[in-house]
Write a structure and sequence with these properties.
The chain is mostly beta strands. 9% of the residues lie in helices and 60% in strands.
């Protein structure tokens, strides 16, 4: 019983830092905001996940089917060092191809994102650790068609203690396919607050922040922001044991490096906002089930240097309902 309490306490202490690191990596933004693999760097472990989202056709907008599968595996653990490999594959399929007005751009009916990589993590003591995460993949309608469709990501971090419970984090992150500042190694710092007030934890940095508040055992609230485009706000209420109901609002653009695009620096962007309500339950064997109903709005496809553009031509899609099912397992 004491071992379980210490383990849960250690995981809780690592969550703010893990969230910040995951934001800085080039993992799927949609996965980031749902907390899938939230502690993948500072709390490494074996895990797997699958997600299915269905959006029916409405008015002139096509139906959408989005699938994503991924996992991680510890391949070596030696004292304070942990080596992990990970992979992810996702597909977005449209029943027909929208056309971006004024440009003639036909949005591909199938868009893929295939990723693989690894993580090295060294823990030198309480709030003393460092790690490196590297990844290679292709997010495109024709994955690995050429070097122009190749996606590269790298993140390095160092954490060291501050005061009685807090810590500082230094980082350097690179990606050629994120929602802003592509192809720029991004250095920075963040401060991790661990319960400055009872139940409150937060990581404050540039260009991101995350916060969670747990006033008691039955209520939770969380907020996250990454750059100018990725934002999420969620509230959770315990129903019974490890079963929770939640409501969430989020905006998380997806990007692909479309093959044969005219400008190498352009990305095909699907941007939307959504409000969701769902139920999530976790079993003793580490398996979790999450089912939700959402309303997607401000939906549009466009091609630009990144998702932080508002004046480019777009293919606007009507608002629609969506159903999502997520299965995950973590050891």
């Amino acid at each position: 019983m004491r071992l379980m309490i210490r383990h849960e306490s250690a995981v809780r202490r690592t969550l703010p830092l893990a969230a910040a690191l995951l934001f800085l990596s080039a993992a799927s933004s949609r996965a980031q905001e749902r907390g899938e693999g939230l502690a993948s760097m500072t709390n490494p472990g074996d895990g797997a996940r699958y997600a299915l989202t269905l959006v029916p056709a409405v008015h002139d907008a096509p139906s959408m089917v989005r699938q994503e599968a991924g996992g991680s595996k510890i391949v070596l653990q030696d004292g304070s060092d942990t080596w992990t490999v990970n992979g992810r594959a996702s597909e977005l399929e449209l029943s027909r191809s929208p056309v971006v007005a004024g440009t003639g751009l036909v949005v591909p009916a199938k868009l893929w994102n295939l990723q693989g990589g690894g993580t090295f993590f060294r823990k030198n003591g309480e709030r003393k650790n460092w790690g490196v995460q590297l990844g290679l993949g292709s997010a495109s309608n024709l994955p690995f068609h050429s070097l122009r469709e190749t996606e590269v990501r790298a993140t390095a971090h160092r954490e060291f203690p501050s005061r009685a419970r807090d810590s500082w984090m230094l980082f350097l992150a690179y990606s050629n396919n994120r929602s802003f500042a592509n192809n720029i190694p991004f250095p920075g710092a963040a401060y991790v607050f661990r319960e400055p007030l009872p139940g409150l934890e937060a990581t404050i940095g540039l260009p991101f922040m995350s916060a969670s508040y747990k006033p008691n055992e039955d209520w939770r609230a969380s907020f996250s922001l990454f750059g100018p485009t990725n934002v999420s706000l969620q509230g959770d209420r315990r129903l019974v044991s490890e079963t929770w109901a939640y409501a969430r609002w989020e905006r998380n653009p997806s990007q692909w490096l479309r093959a044969d695009r005219a400008q190498r620096t352009d990305r095909l962007v699907y941007d939307q906002q959504e409000v969701r309500a769902g139920v999530r339950t976790k079993f003793e064997n580490g398996f979790s089930v999450d089912a939700s109903l959402g309303r997607d709005f401000n939906r549009r496809f466009y091609e630009s240097r990144d998702a932080n553009r508002s004046s480019v031509p777009k293919a606007e899609l009507a608002d629609a309902w969506s159903l999502a099912l997520r299965l995950s397992w973590r050891r």
